[in-house]
Amino acid sequence: MNDRFLKACRGEPTDTVAVWFMRQAGRYQAEYRTLRRRYQLLDLVQDPDLCCQVTALPVEQLGVDAAILFSDIMVPLGPMGVNYRIQEGVGPVLAHPLRTADDIARLVPLHAQRGLDFVPAAIEKICRRLTVPLIGFSGAPFTLASYLVEGGPSRQYLATKRMLWGEPKLWGRLMDRLSEMVVAYTTLQVHAGAHAIQLFDSWAGALSRQDFDRAVKPYLIGIYETLAALGVPLLYFAVGAGHLIDSLADLPLDVIGVDWRHPLGEVRRRAGQRTLQGNLDPAVLLAPWETIEDSATEVLGQGKGGGHIFNLGHGVLPDTDPGTLRRLVEFVHQQGG
Question: For a tag on the chain, would you pick the N or C end, based on fewer CB atoms within 10 A?
Answer without folding.
Answer: C
